[in-house]
Design the sequence.
């Protein structure tokens, strides 16, 4: 398919939003509206936001079958089935070995959607007792998983072909997030187990209250939104969650906790956008600006958003770009520097011995010229574009 221009993409995104709206609200799309859609463009746009399955189900309800959508929907269901099986097996091991755990995000949100497989999942996120990381590694490998990495950041990564991916969280946020401006998040969730409620149906499982689940869901969305951006799936998640549980939520508690995290305004804006966009209500100007940013971000954001957001923290002048560039080139030597924890986590060998730290500059410079050359070139191009 040829690359879409901006107007074609916007049209396709509007169609994706409409199909997702129909899917979660149990409505059959208008035949007249569907006939006007560029199905190929809708497919491409829905892929960017992990909404292909719900669009496929909506189109099918309108009598439209397309092999690409059918295959994407089948793959989404197959992935969920496999990860549900693997998660249940993993929790059996945890129960036997007395390891406390809590499923997170998509593994629970998917069950609130009208149909199984409608909410696509990329991985399984599980919080667990961080002191048992090596035991979890042994268990995961015994189940046929390969360890992607362990002991880096706030989650360990495991995957099993063809479709099962697990992120095993030792914490919800870690010191590596301080460099992203999320110090309040790190402090708030430092002793997260104190906020958890014990499951009644098992010995080692925990869960959030429905309010704390929503606060964390929003915090996770904000982490992506304020860095590289987030996609329409997160907006749809908010709509589905509030539609299902909104009457039961203590909104005053939620607003108080969001204020502690410094994201009260974001929560209000994202809630407004979700309920208006997928509730078929008129969008405010604020909604439209937020939607524009999200629509062009895709599920996991873009490097351009990430760079622009970081530069914007220094203002929007050429001096801001200079400050950003110096920040990228320099190595933080003091623990008081907000970037120290992140660099320490990703380059531990250099920080084991203080005399190695100056060598990190040359290591990163060499890596930038070789392994990360394409990424660095793209970063330079984006910074140059800001001048225009």
Sequence:
């Amino acid at each position: 398919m040829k690359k879409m221009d901006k107007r074609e993409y916007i049209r396709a995104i509007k169609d994706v939003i409409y199909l997702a709206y129909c899917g979660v609200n149990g409505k059959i799309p208008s035949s007249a509206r569907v006939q006007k859609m560029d199905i190929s463009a809708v497919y491409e746009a829905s892929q960017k936001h992990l909404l292909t399955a719900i669009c496929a189900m909506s189109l099918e309800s309108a009598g439209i079958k397309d092999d690409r959508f059918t295959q994407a929907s089948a793959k989404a269901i197959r992935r969920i089935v496999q990860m549900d099986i693997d998660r249940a097996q993993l929790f059996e091991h945890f129960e036997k070995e007395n390891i406390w755990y809590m499923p997170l995000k998509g593994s629970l949100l998917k069950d609130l959607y009208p149909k199984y497989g409608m909410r696509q999942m990329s991985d399984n996120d599980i919080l667990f007792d961080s002191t048992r990381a090596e035991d979890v590694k042994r268990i995961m490998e015994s189940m046929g998983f390969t360890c992607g990495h362990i002991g880096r950041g706030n989650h360990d990564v495991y995957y099993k072909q063809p479709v099962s991916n697990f992120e095993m969280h030792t914490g919800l946020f870690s010191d590596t997030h301080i460099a992203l401006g999320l110090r309040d998040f790190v402090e708030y969730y430092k002793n997260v187990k104190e906020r958890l409620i014990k499951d009644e149906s098992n010995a080692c499982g925990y869960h959030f209250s429905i309010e704390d689940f929503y606060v964390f869901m929003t915090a996770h969305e904000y982490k992506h939104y304020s860095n590289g951006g987030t996609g329409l799936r997160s907006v749809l998640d908010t709509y589905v969650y509030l539609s299902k549980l909104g009457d039961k939520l203590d909104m005053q508690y939620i607003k108080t906790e969001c204020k502690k995290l410094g994201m009260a305004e974001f929560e209000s804006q994202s809630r407004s956008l979700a309920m208006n966009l997928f509730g078929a209500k008129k969008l405010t100007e604020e909604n439209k600006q937020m939607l524009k940013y999200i629509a062009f971000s895709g599920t996991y954001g873009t490097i351009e958003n990430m760079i622009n957001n970081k530069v914007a923290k220094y203002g929007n002048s050429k001096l801001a770009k200079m400050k950003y560039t110096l920040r990228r080139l320099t190595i933080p030597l003091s623990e008081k520097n907000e970037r120290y924890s992140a660099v320490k986590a990703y380059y531990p060998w250099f920080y084991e011995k203080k005399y190695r730290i100056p060598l990190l500059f040359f290591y990163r410079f060499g890596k930038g010229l070789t392994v990360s050359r394409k990424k660095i070139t793209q970063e330079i191009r984006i910074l140059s574009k800001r001048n225009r």
Notes: The domain at 77-207 is CATH 3.30.460.40 (Beta Polymerase; domain 2). Strands lie at 101-103, 124-128, 146-149, 155-160, 164-169, 197-198, 206-207. The chain has a mean pLDDT of 88. The longest strand covers residues 155-160.
